[in-house]
Structures are given as structure tokens and as C-alpha cells.
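1st attempt posting a full record on here, be nice pls
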Amino acid sequence: MNNSDWFLIAVVTVAFIAGYSVVSFIVKAINSRKKTTATNEPKTDQSQQKEADSDPWEFKNKEERYAHVLGLDTMFAAKDVKRAYRELLAKYHPDKVNHLGNEFKSIAEIKTREIVEAYDYFRVKHDIR
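the predicted structure (as C-alpha cells):
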């Protein structure tokens, strides 16, 4: 190996470590924010209502929520559900991020559970095989 090969390996290694560090920092910040939010004092009915009105994750029904998880529009066919399920599962499966560490693996496991739950809902409701 010549010097340029070693330089390229060093640059790629530093970039990978820096990226991993940034993502780890973000995950820790999100987790600590969840913990502090959970330990705060109970909110009044008015503040809870304001949050519910402005919460983008609040859905009217299960179908709307599961369609959002799979990235589907309001109008979709069975083939769209299958395609979205397969694409997302290939992207978020825990085995895909196993080499990145336990934090990423646990996040991928949660996301995979949501995807499978959404697919199972549509599979049963629309008799998808």
C-alpha cells in the first residue's frame, strides 16, 4: 500500500467515527429529553389539550397511524402496503445496523416492531397475502 491508500483509509475511518459520535450524541439527547419530560409534574388539562392539538403524531384512527408508519397516502392498494413493508423492513431491520452498536440496534428493533405491527394490521384488514 502506498501513502495515498493509507491517507484514504485514515480519512474514511475518521469520518465514520465522527458520524457515529454525532448520531450517538443525538440519540442520548433525545433519550435524556424523554426522561426529563416523563419526570416533570403533571400537566393541566389545558396544556395537555394544546399539546394534543399541535402533536403531529396524533392520528384519528389506527389506519391513519399505520399508514403513516408505512409512508402511505390516504388512498393505497394492497401492493402498495406490501412494497412499503418490504422496503422499510429492508432498511430498518436490526441486522442491518448490528455492526453500529446497541443504540442503533435497539432503535432499529423498535422501528421494525412498528413496521410489522402496521403491516399485520393492513394484512388482516385487507386480506393481504
